[in-house]
Known about the structure:
The chain has 52 residues and is mostly helical. It has one domain (2-49). The chain is 90% helix and 0% strand. It is built from 2 helices and no strands. The protein has helices spanning 2-14, 17-50. The termini are far apart. The chain crosses the membrane at residues 12-33. Keywords: Membrane, Transmembrane, Transmembrane helix.
Amino acid sequence: xxxxxxxxxxxxxxxxxxxxxxxxxxxxxxxxxxxxxxxxxxxxxxxxxxxx
Length: 52
């Protein structure tokens, strides 16, 4: 009885691994797009606007 209870607990924990991986990929792509690409684009626009 205790073994099947432990196996269910492990199964429940391991079933969240794909969710965590997919969520981290989505969050990383959001970070890469919004913070890096948009920040770089704003810096690029600022540099060319301030030049005479």
